Amino acid sequence: MRSYVVSFCFLLLPLTTHGTPLEQANPEQGKVLYESYCAACHGDDGHGLVPGTPDLDHDSKLFAQGWDLIFKRVRDGFQSPGSPMAMPPRGGTDLSDEELWDILAYMRDAFYTKK
Ligand code: HEC
Predict the structure, then answer these.
(1) How does pLDDT run along the chain (115 residues), one tens digit per residue?
(2) Which ligand 1 atom lies nearest to the CA of residue 104?
(3) Which among 50, 53, 72, 112 is the best mutation to test ligand 1's pocket, defined by most ligand atoms within 8 Å of the CB?
(4) Of all helices (H) and strands (E), which one includes residue 6?
(5) Domains located in the chain, CATH noted
(6) pTM of the predicted model, to two decimals?
(7) How far apart are CA 111 and CA 60, in angstroms?
């Protein structure tokens, strides 16, 4: 019985030691996806091409919100008060949650950590 419990714990270990989705995400893959699905509105450099898009490259307030909230907004879409345009859910695509995290990892590397 005891060894049962011990091996059960070992089975759970890989689940509990997984980091956050952002730490596991693949920024190289995210770059390709960002350029295909997000850059049309946000620009390759994140500065924003469409009226109402934030400057992803310089908006330190945006990143200060924390990645969980940013993820939710990208997944569910949102519109801030007075904004001329909404962020469409998943950027108007059917990208998976994993792919969205890949994109956020790319955004972190390209736009955020260089500050
Ligand atoms: C059709 C144009 C469009 C596309 C495509 C688009 N966005 Fe947006 N995005 C917006 C607009 C407009 C806003 C600002 C909305 C507002 O503040 O009301 C925004 C806001 C954001 C924000 C800021 C969130 C915040 O908390 O302020 C992030 C991050 C973001 N988009 C990421 C993405 C990602 C990742 C993709 C690709 C999967 C994407 N966007 C595709 C138009 C777009």
Answers:
(1) 566 655 555 555 445 445 779 999 999 999 999 999 999 999 999 989 999 898 887 767 788 888 999 999 999 999 999 999 999 999 999 999 999 999 999 999 888 765 4
(2) 35
(3) 53
(4) helix 2-16
(5) 22-112 (1.10.760.10)
(6) 0.86
(7) 10
